[in-house]
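tool=predict chain=A
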Amino acid sequence: MAKDRFHYIVRNALEKDGWKITADPYEINVDDVDFEIDLAAEQLLAAEQEGRKIAVEIKSFLSPSNVSDFHTALGQFLNYRDALDKIEPERQLYLAVRLPIYKSFFQRRFIAVSVKKYQLRLIIYDVQAEVISQWL
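tool=predict ok
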């Protein structure tokens, strides 16, 4: 499967944020269905001395329709989250989106309500600085 246009930017941003990339891509199989999530990462939390594990699906939102891109992203997110719940429930799934898309499209009321309703965890990343701007 082709990597998202901003795949390596998100990977670099996570590494700058102290995350160790443990899989690129993160391939899992649940009930004879194969899934390929963009990244898996781990971070040691010094205060608690336990590892925090995440999986990240990266979306560019570059097509002519942000709504169509959101439909795809939401469907993937829900499927991946269900799969992770079965095989690795301690790993939290995040959807990574560019800062300008978050500031514009993700602020629309319908989209914001959907994000809340479906409990999407978001990583907002800055393409130019190659950093994580926000975790939601």
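The chain has a mean pLDDT of 92. The first strand starts at residue 20 and ends at 23.
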